[in-house]
């Protein structure tokens, strides 16, 4: 509520200007006319119409945004072409598919490690024990998400467990429950574990990230990227929310030229963390060759928008 004159406890008079969204929906024909009027070259109108109808104006706008010379009037720079927008969109889509497949390996390895080490250190229901976690409130939220995932699960082994053990009010044991738990919840469980728990450091060491100081931020940033991929979001030229806490002296091959912290919002450093973990989990992984092939397929894509340096593939990490 804005402060008003005479309002009890008012320290200042504030006048709030309320703004309402007034733009209405427009036809594809009008959208195309508007793009052309703003300077975007459209070679094939019928093809452009198809893309706008199947991908959406607003989704594609994220890819032509850097092509605009004026972000207020939305006037495009000279030689801006619709086909370049589509190529950039297709590149980003293939990049998401590639990363999603690589993240799957990290997710499965994390799930396996959590189940194995913590179930043996404590018991099969360690993830429900609030005494093992730093922030109890966050732990309760994570359990609520896991319970929702259990309720939604169509897996036979979950349904069979609840049917067979009706009187057991606990969640199914870790090796069942965490099998259907999302990467986001898994990363939160690990990050929220108390630092005194032995398995927390054992798991970090198994991933060659030394100790629990570094791995949680890596997993959180990767989980965020996974969600972007799963929901078909944009990665190119994206200001990513997570910031991985980088190892000062990694025990495994890393980067000779580490990006400065001012570039950690771009994809490159996050992908480097993925590659580092993959090299431990799956040493013969094809990440480098597949990523290089993707870049070669789309040579006009500006890799600076992803934070990739010119000779990224010559770094020890990517060999």
Automatic annotation (TrEMBL):
InterPro entries assigned: Abi_system_AbiD/AbiF-like
Tree of life domain: Bacteria
Protein name: Abortive infection bacteriophage resistance protein
